[in-house]
Design goal:
Blueprint lengths: L1 H5 L3 E10 L2 E11 L4 E5 L6 H8 L7 E6 L11 E4 L13 H6 L3 H4 L7 H13 L15 H14 L4 E5 L7 H16 L3 E5 L6 H4 L2 E6 L1 E7 H4 L2 H8 L8
Parallel strand pairs: 3-7, 3-8, 5-6, 6-7
Antiparallel strand pairs: 1-2, 1-4, 8-9
Helix pairs in contact: 5-6
Length: 246
């Protein structure tokens, strides 16, 4: 087990992704250890979401190696949970909150076997942890933005994954939801899980994360927050100074 822990949770080397021959990510390298919370920050168009999607095999790569726990993503699919941006989801689809959360169990069951008592209990427990149990039978279209984000986190919790990829989970949510999400992410980290989050608020990076990657098409810097998240590196990433950074 100890030898397995020495293999990075996520390993990327020489990753290049292009849309219509224009590089969106160029020669990206990153090694994320197990049991950490890492933010990916950078300006709009920096390739943050594309990086997650490339790791998950959602978008093709031109070149580079990607390993999850030392193996290609396809072999580790059941160990990974993904929370996309809310804007990427059809919230008018006619289904209930409980059914959306229960979908998190499909990755381990497959599409033929139906969820049973154990999966349903996990779904209710995830709704309780995210403060959404009272909304279990609501249509997802009736939820606020913060409630929708809680539902998607609950769906990810049902997967009982080892690695969680989250794309802007705090975007457009209320303060109470943000606080709930932060507590849950830190609980996952304390349980040995690895969490990789595309994040937009520079002011909360030090409070929420222990590692950070500054990205703008290329990797500017990556590592422990206290060492990497400096005014100089932020300036290199955004081209502007950020108040409050030493």
């Amino acid at each position: 087990m100890e030898n397995k822990r020495r293999v990075p949770a996520v390993y990327v080397d020489g990753l290049t992704v292009a849309y219509r021959e224009k590089p969106v990510l160029q020669n990206i390298a990153v090694s994320i250890p197990h049991g950490t919370i890492e933010a990916i920050v950078g300006p709009n168009g920096a390739g943050k979401s594309t990086l997650l999607k490339a790791i998950l095999g959602i978008v093709p790569r031109m070149s580079g190696a990607i390993l999850v726990c030392g193996e290609p993503f396809k072999r580790q699919r059941t160990r990974i949970a993904y929370v996309p941006q809310r804007s990427a989801v059809d919230w008018d689809f006619p289904t209930t909150v409980f059914d959306v959360v229960l979908m998190g169990s499909y990755s381990s069951l497959g599409w033929i076997k139906r969820p049973g008592k154990n999966e349903k209990e996990r779904a209710f427990h995830a709704l309780e942890k995210t403060g959404m149990s009272d909304y279990a039978h609501r249509q997802i279209s009736e939820l606020s933005g913060g409630q929708q984000q809680r539902v998607f986190l609950a769906r990810a919790l049902v997967q009982e994954a080892d690695i969680y990829f989250m794309d802007e989970p705090f975007q457009g949510v209320d303060a109470a939801t943000e606080a709930t999400l932060v507590v849950l992410l830190k609980e996952l980290k304390n349980d040995g899980k690895t969490i990789v989050v595309v994040h937009h608020d520079l002011q909360t990076v030090r409070d929420y994360f222990e590692r950070v990657m500054l990205l703008n098409v290329r990797r500017i810097a990556e590592g422990i927050v206290d060492e990497i998240f400096t005014a100089e590196n932020v300036y290199k990433t955004y081209g502007v100074a950020c108040a409050g950074l030493a």
